[in-house]
Sequence to fold (209 residues):
Amino acid sequence: MYMKHKRIPDETIRRLPLYLRGLVFLLQEGHLSVSSEKFGDYVGVNSSQIRKDFSYFGEFGVRGVGYDIRKLAIEIKGILKLNEIHKAALIGAGNLGSAIISYPGLQLYGFDITAVFDNNTHKIGKKIRDIEILDVAKLGILKKKNIQIGIITVPRNAAQETADALVKAGVTGILNFSPCYIIVPKNVKVITIDIAGYLARMPYYITAG
Ligand code: NAD
Fold:
């Protein structure tokens, strides 16, 4: 069981998956402890920020020895509720959807895409990575399968109707890749990801003048 802790700021929560990934890689490389300086270099966050973030959930550092990597990883998994496998459904088995389904990085955090849907009759019934593509009209089965996370990779004009159908099917967390804002009830968490949006910040940093 992980420790009780103070309310953790969203900014810290946002960095925790990055820390967890770094800790898992360090464990895989055979390390048992790491200093905040070394860990900072490893994950690209400055060490004082790391010390501050870790201070929200207890004492894991020993002066001169560093942080106990295994204990920290367990703690972060507990905070993020990543101790169990989280099943997810993906809607839109196109280019991006197929790439996400095949991405092994999801398993590191315990995510498993176990249901895939599309509305294209040529795709329905075919398989991606052993998962049969189902008719999106059957999205209601998510309730029975106890799937609470939906990943939207449909064209922009179909994103809202897809979100509505996911909510109706009992989904409470949506990862939205469609480049648009979607409206959901208050109890549903939406995280929208747009690579173009990240890239759009780049010229500001790299262009002189
Ligand atoms: P795609 O055309 O290859 O795939 C879209 C899939 O959605 C198709 O299989 C299509 O049949 C299916 N679809 C369409 N309407 C549907 C509906 N109502 N219900 C269920 N399935 C439906 O497109 P793509 O290149 O994979 O892009 C998918 C989405 O992801 C687009 O909105 C695109 O703009 C977005 N995208 C986002 C990023 C990002 O960084 N977030 C990057 C690339 C693409």
Remarks:
- The chain is about 40% helix and 20% strand.
- The first helix runs from residue 10 to 28.
- The mean pLDDT is 92.
